[in-house]
Amino acid sequence: MCLAITVASSFCFLMLQAADSAPSVQAPKQVQIKNPGFEEANDKNPDRPAAWGGYNWKSSSQAHSGSKALQLGNFQWTDQLFSIAPEDIGKNITVRFYAKGKGELQFFFSHGKKVDGKDSGTHGDWNSRQAFFALSDEYMPYSYTMAIPAGTEYSRTHIGASHAVEAYIDDVTVTIGETVKKVETSTGKDIIPAPENDKLVNIAAYAKIRTDPWGFNSGRMVDGIQYTGLSLSKHPWKKSCSYAFRYDKAQTIAGIRFSLASGGFVIWADTKGDGKYDKELVMEEGYTPGGYWGSVEWPFYSRAFSPNIKAYAVKLTTFSKSQPVFEFEILSPSKTVSPEMLAPIVLAAGVPSLEQGAALPPVELGSARRYLQGYHVEPWMFDCPGWLKKTPRPPLKDWPPFQKMLAGLKEMHCNLVWLFPPKTWDETITKGRKECTYKSDVMWPSQVHTYSHADHLLKEFCDELHAAGMEVFTQDRDNSCKITKPDNVPETPVIPWLTREVFKLSGAEMAAEGVDGIPVCVDEAYFGGGPSFKLGKEDPKKTEDENKKIIEQNKAVEVARKAFAERWKLGDNPVYPEKREDTELFRKWQIFYYEQIASFMDGTSKYVKKSNPKAKAVSNLVAFEIFNNRAQWGVAEDIIGWNADIDYLGTDPYHTQEDGFGVYTASIMSKSLMAGNRKKQTIITLNGPWGWGGKAKQPGAFEVCPPISIIGSVVGAASQGCQAYAFWRYYNIVALEYGKHVGKAYEMLDTMAAWGSRDAVMPKDIAVLRSRASEDWWQLKYASDFSKDSIVPYIQYLWTAKFLMSKGYPYELFYLDQPESYKNLSEYRLIILPFPYSVSKEACAKIEEALKAGSKVIAMGARGETDEIGSAYNDSPLKKLIEEKKIEFIDDKIADVGDFPEFNKKFKGKLDELLGERKTLDFNSYGMDVQVGCLEKSPSEKFVTLINWSGKDATVDLGIKMPSAKYKVLMRNIEGAYEMQIGGNREFTAQELNKFRVALKNGEAVVLYVSPVK
Q: Which tens digits make up the pLDDT trace of 399-410?
């Protein structure tokens, strides 16, 4: 008997009925579908099947049964209408069919009734739930169920190809009155070990794993640790997910167990080893009862196979959006598993251990340059409303809630408060205020904002923080103002004049109050996919106000058009894009749009700094990186950072262990923002557990955000060069008792700063040249052509970043689109181009100069097919270098093989070969997930960071290349700082540092500081 999962919905739910489910108590009624197998041809058009409506479909000989099937292409659909009897209202209606192909199918029912004898309500009724089904190369059974709503006289079943290159459908049936069975799950607080009496072993971790969409770290769903699961990449159109586990030899499989089972799924097996999944193992419905954050125990789905099956591969496919897969187990009888597969990893012999010696006294910061480190604070957290109501109002420094907060900040080694928003939070005065997100007064007498306090509260706040040795940044979320644009002032393109003016004037006012960091955009700023380039038409059927709005919108379009034509020198009779498409004209429009966003931020920065040169310009951009779609958000970090005077180009790389890039999120995003900023500075906003109900109510939220997520994110980003940090937000972090972990992270930063890490830089081993143009223009080209995956360039870069960070290869990141940033490219031994699809001639010339100077170059996946605007080359200069064998070219598709051990070994070997003697670190994690970072003040003074993300104790071998001299090694971990030793010795030769062993506890972060003995 198969297991299933219930759905908490009385109206509509997705149903994937298991093949061996028991029949319902009352037999379902069969709906008489016409031509269900598509065997009968249409009289008027023999290429099409009879009785089916739809768009642009045709018959095919690739049948599941019989001789014909229905073939659909992208955005094509088929449908059929049938009547509903009154007694069937409220019952379930189910469609079943077989399908195969590439891409996804979309299915839904629409319902209608007769009005004056005519159809009504059928077409365009999207109120019913829609399902997205992933297609495979083999025919698979699909089903979908929903309740028939009241008033229905007939239904229409719709099957469409959504984002599919091709789809084949056959053998459709529709029934009314089926019931959905509850499906049982097992639970446990931790991963459930295989039953000892069955002598089963879990072999999932020994498979070659491939996911679709690509998963940033697939190994985390087979590591035996519950909370380190896998979420697949966000994708512009894919709604379903698949996880394939393949072996070189057939394996005996006794059962499968995984967590979480979600959204409906099927599990298939390849029993022949030909790459085709020919045997259905499980077909299930529904959702896991309850979410994992709120569950006290983890739910597991399990299925035993009797008799056992033999298979070369197993594939899990989910329908509709999937939850994370936290742990996937493939259970095999131990006697059938080869000893080689289960052989333990053996540590290399003869490697001496680096051991902890005497504890060091707390560091003296003195004149050391500290990192900026603190919290986002909202004024209610020091009871600003209560303070304002006091008569007389005491000085802020004497206000107990403020004193308590300030003491807490000091205890956690903070020197930054990011005030968000700088408003009083007095809600007693906000009645009738509709213009603002936060409707209370700004904390100073403002000539700009609609609502402001008469006293200089913000200045008093800044004065007290400054006296405590802390800086103040501010961030607001609305542009409510009491100024208007004068008629004689010309409008500005893309970002209106009024928005630009409010940010400039408000920023100057805050700087005058003593604020150190001024916002140049709203919180989590994004700007959409680009300004409208089409003029609207007035309509006599519209109201006067509606037509006035069209007139105003057209004025804005005309302003943007004029600026666009001037930017690209389009002449006297310019043409403009008609739609979003892969044309040079539209691509130029996209660049123009990015540049206008940068000019908006630059205007604020320059205006504020003119009156207060010490002010810092700060942005907090949306974390678009995780969405794999820059243009959708309108945020091009390199264009902003190189065109605007931004001191801290920031974002909020929020994460939990199973989400997105997981534990590498902070390091990867901060690296991208530093590369995108001319000043190489970023500030990142980090998170604690999202379980604000506390551990008792939401234990899962704390398991997926253990203390190392706090500490490792900070130290990991610091090892990549990040300079500023703020946790969101003070009250929640402290209330959830995670403030002590933030304090430890910041204490580690202080130790690093005292040792001089703020003056350290990346070793010049590797330069990675990421291409914004390649990511944008490839995605634009394949936005509606699904023969290639539109997020390939993102995958290639992210895989490269994670590989280098986890294998011990420190690298500097540059944007290929900003050649000025890598004018000293030849100083790097190895240059990696993760996906150089769009490459300017200037960039290619710099690469060629580096080649002539002795640098080595690897290009992956693309050969410079277009220039920086996305226009195809007739004779690509990069392609020529590849063809001349001057550049190593790797044609493997990372999405297919990036997680395969063989490819990892081959790629690592290639890096070692090309780096040669210039390789700074030698690292072996023995298969554990350990992040490595390295900064150097000089060749003889280095910082090496090790972060154990693996969820268990780890042992690693590390070698640090140093010039000939005597060295000492200091170590800072979560608990404190120590002098290190090997075999009792506290001084080491360069040779002795070539290889040593480091033991890392579960959840440990370590910073090693290597310096000459003086």
A: 999 999 999 999
Euclidean distance between CA atoms 716 and 737, whole angstroms: 22
Fold of domain 764-918: Rossmann fold (3.40.50)
> What digits encode the pLDDT tens for the residues 821-879?
999 999 999 999 999 999 999 999 999 999 999 999 999 999 999 999 999 999 999 99
User: Could you count the other beta carbons within 10 Å of the beta carbon of residue 524?
Assistant: 16
| Residue of 476, 471, 452 whose CA lies nearest to 378 | 476
Q: b or e along 567-589 (b: 16 or more beta carbons within 10 Å of the residue's beta carbon)?
A: ebeeeeeeebbeebebeebbbbb
What architecture is the 23-176 domain classified under in CATH? Sandwich (2.60)
Torsion of CA 453, 457, 458, 464, to 10 degrees: -170
Is residue 776 within a helix (H) or strand (E), and if so which, with residue range? helix 772-781
Q: Are 374 and 723 in contact (CB under 8 A)?
A: no
Q: Answer left, alpha or beta for residue 832, where phi above 0 means left and psi between -120 and 50 means alpha.
A: beta
Number of continuous H segments (helices) and E segments (strands) in the chain: 20, 42
Closest CA to 413 of 472, 475, 467, 468: 468
The whole-angstrom distance between residue 640's C-alpha and the CA centroid of its chain comes to 21
Q: Tell me what pLDDT residue 480 has.
A: 78
pLDDT tens digit sequence for 92-103: 888 889 999 888
- Distance, in Å, from the CA atom of 633 to the CA atom of 365, rounded to the nearest integer, reads 41
Alpha-carbon distances, residue 6 vs 266, 324, 1014 (angstroms): 16, 18, 69
- For residues 927 and 43, give the distance between their C-alpha atoms in angstroms, rounded to a whole number: 63
Same fold, 23-176 and 186-342: yes
Residue 23 has a CB neighbour count (10 Å cut-off) of 9
Provide CB contacts within 8 A for 956, sequence distance 6+: 923, 924, 925, 926, 928, 930, 946, 997, 998, 1000
The CATH number assigned to the domain with range 186-342 reads 2.60.120.260
Instruction: Read off the pLDDT of residues 385-430 as tens digits, 9 standing for 90 and up.
Output: 999 999 999 999 999 999 999 999 999 999 999 999 999 998 778 7
Fill in the amino acid letter for 171: D
Using an 8 Å Cβ cutoff, are 168 and 70 in contact? yes
Would you kindly state where each structural domain of the chain is located, as residue ranges? 23-176, 186-342, 372-482, 764-918
Distances, alpha carbon 421 to alpha carbons 337, 509, 778, 794, 970, in Å: 60, 15, 39, 34, 41
Q: Assign residue 436 a region (left: φ > 0; alpha: ψ between -120 and 50; beta: otherwise).
A: beta
Burial class (CB in 10 A: 0-12, 13-18, 19+), 496: middle
- Residue partners of 116: CB distance under 8 A and separation at least 6: none
Q: Is the pLDDT of residue 129 over 80?
A: no
**Long-range contacts of 84-87, Cβ-Cβ distance < 8 Å, separation of 24 or more:** 84/111, 84/148, 84/152, 84/153, 84/154, 84/155, 84/176
Residues contacting residue 464 through CB under 8 Å, at least 6 positions apart: 396, 397, 402, 406
What are the residues facing 71 on neighbouring strands?
58, 168
Structure tokens of 920? 């700074």
Span 877-907, pLDDT tens digits: 999 999 999 999 999 999 999 999 999 999 9
What DSSP letter does each residue of 196-265 carry, written as one string? GGGTEEE-GGGSEEEEES-BTTGGGGSSS-TT--B-BPP-SS---EEEEEEEEEEEEEEEEEEE---S-E
Query: Angle CA(84)–CA(87)–CA(88) in degrees, nearest 5?
Result: 50
Cα gap 856→835, rounded to integer Å: 16
Rg of the chain over CA atoms, in angstroms?
A: 31
Give the C-alpha separation, 577 to 574, whole Å.
Answer: 10
The secondary structure of the chain in percent helix, strand, coil, rounded to multiples of 5, reads 25, 30, 45
Helix pair 497-512, 584-611: axis angle to 10 deg: 30
Of residues 664, 560, 556, the one with CA closest to residue 950: 664
